Amino acid sequence: MVKTEALEEAILAMGEPFTVKDIVENVGGSPMTVKTVLERLAEQERVVVAGERPATRGRAAKLWKVA
Q1: What is the pLDDT of residues 54-66, one digit of tens each?
Q2: Distance from C-alpha of 25 to C-alpha of 55, rounded to nearest angstrom
Q3: Nearest Cα residue to 50 out of 8, 5, 6, 18
Q4: Closest by alpha carbon to 64, among 6, 28, 2, 10?
Q5: DSSP per residue over the chain, as a string?
Q6: pLDDT by residue (tens digit) across 14-56?
Q7: What's the burial of 58, exposed, middle or buried (CB within 10 Å: 0-12/13-18/19+)?
Q8: What is the pLDDT of residues 4-21, one digit of tens each?
Q9: What pLDDT, on the 0 to 100 scale, is given for residue 58?
Q10: Domain spanning 4-66: which CATH class is it, in words?
Q11: In angstroms, rounded to a whole number, what is the distance separating the alpha carbons of residues 58 and 28?
Q12: What residue segments make up the domains of the chain, in order of their start?
């Protein structure tokens, strides 16, 4: 289990735009936990939506970046 503080720290250290899946695979945590942390960081204007990563199937993944 990854603590939300560790997720925040890892997210804010990301240099390139990233998806929820990128964080889950590289840092850990569940997709829902990562989304919750991202929403909180977005409210604080510490991360912003950077577009979408096209998908071959299904909905395109939202790209995030550090503000």
Answers
A1: 878 888 899 999 9
A2: 17
A3: 18
A4: 10
A5: ---HHHHHHHHHT--S-B-HHHHHHHT-S-HHHHHHHHHHHHHTTSEEEEEEE--SSSSPEEEEEE-
A6: 999 999 999 999 999 999 999 999 999 999 999 999 999 887 8
A7: exposed
A8: 999 999 999 999 999 999
A9: 83
A10: mainly alpha
A11: 23
A12: 4-66
User: Which residues are bridge partners to 53 per DSSP?
Assistant: 61
**Model pTM above 0.70:** yes
User: What are the two backbone dihedrals, phi and then psi, of residue 23, each rounded to the nearest 5 degrees?
Assistant: -65, -45
Other C-beta atoms within 10 Å of 44: how many? 10
Token couple for 28? 């850990």
Closest CA to 34 of 1, 58, 67, 57: 1
